[in-house]
Write a structure and sequence with these properties.
single chain, alpha/beta, FAD/NAD(P)-binding domain, Cholesterol Oxidase, domain 2, 2 domains, seven-stranded mixed beta sheet, 11 helices, 24% helix, 17% strand, globular
């Protein structure tokens, strides 16, 4: 394709994931000249069934989204190992190409420092983002039911599509949760429960991660294609090497390289960084110049700082009855009961026996999930086994069908020492220093994981599950790969990178639309909030254009 820059764009967007795609579509649809620069390539949608087959065949399993190698090299020199490339994608669509598709709103307490912990407040409130949440749910196509008693207030009483029915194993969990006084409710999902926005309903391939072959699950190519139809230019396989500034407080150009090694400068009136919580701070640091010796937008020293993620807590085992796991590739039920009240007790409603005592320690919010993909996959058993016919069927019956598990997320507090920095000892395929992840947990994370495990064990014990594993502080817990906080939002330019309008304090025409602006992590999957912030960013850009 033609990869030369456009003559002069109104807006240049770096990154074609959900944030960049949404901003591009909004602005292009309103008549602005938009150019999107994406480091990865455009994947062929018609190959998704082949990708699915590749993903489920153990002998051929690989990275179907082509992550890895010198281009994607990184290091992690923090207290905790951070396997960065496990769950990111460089390409048109970004990580929504293989995401799980859960889209919850953060709670008002997440923004207002309302949790009983030391998290700071955001410079915007839930009510500031509330109309954008409504718009984001329509844009992504969210299926859900208004049955969550702990959900934040909504302007739209219903979701764009009805929610998915609870799974069979959800009904098993419901027995124990009812006895323990734990409320279960549906999960809002960015996948079609019915035809929506020109895309068909979910057909149940069950391979949502790493690939949805049908397109029923939202990914950002939806808005990229809409943006292109409205006149936007999207250039793939052009990693941006640096941003140039004009000496007068503005970005003048994004410098990128084509697969043939040609270097180009894309000029624009406004620039938007939407490349995620690792590559955005890396690019800002790589763009250091005489006027900005410590990197762009970094007068506060906060670029790359306050790196946060969500930690997974979970437990599972087997029951002496069928659970029908691995029929569904996504979660249909969860509980937010311990989100705003993570120290709440768990007591048997019949006997009054306390399974988990009330605690006034400070915790991160806890989001509980009832998994639908515990235990071995029948496809994997069949493909890796040596038996055929009746012998294979006997093996499947013996090894599959009675597994059951719970999961959950807890968030990290923002810590100055957790950061993304440059490692000048290792370079990528263009000679640039790679990102170095400095990651640690802290005591509150450990307490919160243990608290989530205690609640999960109470439910599993009530069911009579033979618990075989627990993802806890000692072993098994790890990141959810939600990169947040490396260009935080704030009103004070000495402590933050962007203002409440998502514009850099230091550079008048540079905005950031990403989870990198999150002030706190909460414990909700971040994509709906990313989409809402992207829509807010687009509104502020239009005010200036």
């Amino acid at each position: 394709m033609q990869r030369a820059p456009t003559d002069r764009a109104d807006v240049c967007i770096v990154g074609a994931g959900p944030a960049g795609a949404i901003v591009a579509n909004r602005l292009a649809s309103d008549g602005y000249d938009v150019t999107v620069l994406e480091a990865g390539r455009r994947f062929d949608f018609t190959r998704r069934r082949d990708q699915m087959e590749q993903a489920i065949r153990p002998g051929e399993r690989g990275d179907v989204w082509e992550m890895g190698g010198e281009r994607d090299d990184y290091s992690d020199n923090g207290a905790r190992t951070y396997p960065l490339n496990v769950a990111r994608v460089k390409g048109v669509g970004g990580s929504t190409l293989h995401w799980q598709g859960m889209v919850m709103r953060m709670h008002p307490a997440d923004f207002d420092a309302g949790h009983d912990n030391d998290d700071p407040a955001w410079p915007i409130s839930y009510d500031d983002l509330r109309p954008y949440y409504d718009e984001a749910e329509r844009a992504l196509g969210v299926a859900g039911d208004a049955d969550n008693p702990f959900a934040p207030p909504r302007d739209e009483p219903t979701y764009p599509m009805p929610g998915f029915e609870p799974s069979y194993s959800d009904s098993i969990f419901a027995e124990a949760c009812e006895k323990l006084g734990i409320a279960m409710h549906s999960v809002p999902n960015a996948r079609n429960s019915e035809s929506y926005d020109g895309r068909g309903q979910c057909v149940g391939y069950g391979t949502c991660q790493p690939v949805c072959p049908s397109g029923a699950k939202y990914d950002a190519t939806v808005h990229i294609e809409d943006a292109e139809a409205a006149g936007a230019t999207v250039i793939d396989r052009v990693p941006v090497q640096r941003l140039e500034t004009d000496g007068f407080g503005r970005v003048s150009a994004a410098v990128y390289v084509t697969p043939e090694g040609e270097e180009y400068r894309q000029a624009a009136r406004e620039f938007v960084l939407a490349a995620g919580g690792v590559e955005i701070p890396r690019l800002l640091l790589l763009s250091a110049n005489d006027d900005h010796p410590h990197g762009l937008a970094n007068s506060s020293g906060a670029v790359g700082r306050y790196f946060m993620d969500h930690l997974f807590a979970g437990s599972g085992g087997t029951l002496d009855r069928e659970t029908r796991q691995n029929h569904i590739g996504f979660i249909t039920s969860e509980s937010h009961q311990f989100y705003d009240d993570p120290g709440g007790a768990v007591e048997h409603v019949d006997t009054g026996e306390t399974f988990v005592a009330e605690s006034d320690d400070d915790y991160s919010p806890i989001k509980l999930e009832f998994l639908n993909y515990a235990g071995p996959s029948p496809v994997e058993i069949a493909l890796t086994g040596e038996d055929w016919g009746d012998a294979m069927l006997d093996e499947l019956r013996g090894a599959y069908g009675n597994s059951i598990a719970m999961g959950g997320l807890v968030g990290q507090p923002p810590r100055w020492e957790n950061r993304v920095r440059l490692n000048t000892d290792i370079t990528d395929d263009h000679g640039n220093p790679v990102p170095d992840i400095m990651w640690s947990w802290g005591d509150r994370v450990r307490r919160s994981i243990s608290r989530a495990n205690a609640i999960q064990h109470a439910v599993l014990d009530e069911l009579g599950v033979d618990i075989a594993w627990t993802a806890n502080v000692e072993s098994g817990s790890g990141p959810a790969y939600h990169h947040m906080g490396t260009t935080r939002m704030g009103a004070d330019p000495e402590e933050s990178v962007v203002n409440p309008q998502l514009r850099s304090h230091d550079l008048r025409n540079l905005s950031i639309a990403s989870s990198s602006v999150f002030v706190t992590a909460g414990s909700m999957n971040p994509t709906l909030t990313i989409a809402a912030l992207a829509l807010k960013c687009a509104d502020h850009l239009e005010e200036r254009l």
